[in-house]
From TrEMBL:
Source organism: Sphenostylis stenocarpa
Any Gene Ontology CC annotation: chloroplast outer membrane
Pfam families: Omp85
Subcellular location: Plastid, Chloroplast outer membrane
Lineage: Eukaryota, Viridiplantae, Streptophyta, Embryophyta, Tracheophyta
Keywords: Membrane, Plastid, Plastid outer membrane
Protein name according to UniProt: Bacterial surface antigen (D15) domain-containing protein
Length: 360
């Protein structure tokens, strides 16, 4: 239940998308994170402005704004044309605001839901992306960005400690600043019967000033899909670790849709390291509908106590968990949707609505 509109203004294109479906889903299954001040807060939508030839030399400008129930994201990207054999440059400015549920959310209903911990993250980043020319199977992107992170309470005021008095930032100040060098490499291989995807991200905090964060963080995602007659088996393995300086919001959170279903977001645990495995078998029921059974499991590799303030222990998170269940996949001209019914190790059942995100 929404509306989409595209407007052409000269050479620029403006896409507007307003969606009211989230209000319905929220009333059916989601716990209230905070009180809503106005009807506008129950609307999600996006605004995108694109200009393909900003200064007459094929320079591209993309401006996008996305609003969720409790989060928002503004992105401005400027791209200059370069020969195909050279890395493509993009200058990026981004600001996001979102509730910090994965680390400081409060598990409820036997870890099947995560309520608000009253902490939100405001992130501002400015930098440059260099996308290397893609080979037949490999592609890579290098970026260097300045990042400024501020924890906020639900009233929008800057805070430096959580409700238990533990620091929310690495510096102990109301904000953290860092320069991050990031390398992302992707490998993709596919044929009529199977596919394999591999993504590796490595981030390095550069010590420009003595109080700025110095760290090394890596994360990998490996996905494999195989046809088994009319059925399709999809498996995914996700892992990562961080060494050096660390703020609690940099921890890996485990649990929720896209991680271990049957648990709320981050309700399994949060740690300096993580390992999550997903497997899903889908079987077509008709042209638009598929049935699915799945099994998810994840662990913080006993690294939860290494996160500053040990938020996972204070919230009683188990550190590892298993979820299994079944669901439906709907394919339509409006997109792909999924409904999942999962049960966790505490025999608590959870119903999920949303976009299908396992195959990525």
């Amino acid at each position: 239940m929404g509306a989409q509109k595209s407007i052409h203004a000269g050479k620029a294109k403006i896409d507007v998308n307003v969606d009211f479906t989230h209000k319905l889903c929220a009333s059916l299954m989601l716990p209230t994170l905070r009180s809503s001040g106005s009807p506008f807060s129950l609307v999600i939508g996006s605004l995108c402005i694109k200009h393909p030839n900003l200064f007459g030399g094929s320079e591209k400008l993309d401006v996008s704004w996305d609003k969720g129930l409790y989060d928002s994201n503004v992105l401005v990207a400027y791209r200059r044309p370069r020969p195909e054999w050279l890395a493509q440059q993009s200058f990026v400015l981004q600001h996001s605001l979102s509730p910090e549920i994965g680390i400081h959310g409060i598990p409820v209903n036997n870890f099947s839901r995560s309520g608000s911990g009253g902490i939100n993250l405001s992130r501002l980043s400015v930098g440059m992306d260099l996308k290397e020319p893609a080979s037949s199977k490999w592609s890579s992107t290098t970026s260097i960005k300045f990042e400024h992170v501020r924890p906020l309470n639900d009233d929008g005021r800057a805070i430096s400690r959580d409700f238990d008095g533990f620091p929310l930032t690495c510096s102990g100040n109301p904000h953290d600043s860092m320069v991050v060098l990031k390398q992302e490499s992707q490998f993709a291989k596919a044929n009529d019967n199977s596919f394999f995807h591999f993504n590796l991200q490595i981030e390095q905090g550069i010590p420009v000033f003595s109080k700025w964060i110095i760290f090394n963080r890596f994360k990998f995602v490996a996905s494999k899909g195989i046809k088994l007659g009319p059925a399709f088996l999809l498996t995914r393995l996700t892992g990562g670790s961080i060494v050096g300086d660390m703020a609690p919001y940099q921890a890996f959170s485990i649990g929720g849709i896209g991680s271990v279903r049957g648990y709320g977001e981050g309700a399994v645990g949060s740690g300096r390291s993580c390992l999550v495995a997903n497997s899903e078998l889908t079987l077509p029921l008709n042209k638009m509908l598929e049935g699915a059974i799945f099994l998810d499991c994840g662990t913080d590799l006993r690294s939860g106590h290494l996160v500053p303030g040990n938020p996972a222990l204070r919230q009683g998170k188990p550190g590892s968990g298993v979820g299994l269940g079944y669901g439906l996949r709907f394919k339509s001209q409006f997109g792909h949707f999924q409904v999942d019914y999962a049960i966790n190790a505490f025999q608590q059942r959870t119903l999920y609505f949303g976009l299908s995100n396992l195959p990525s």
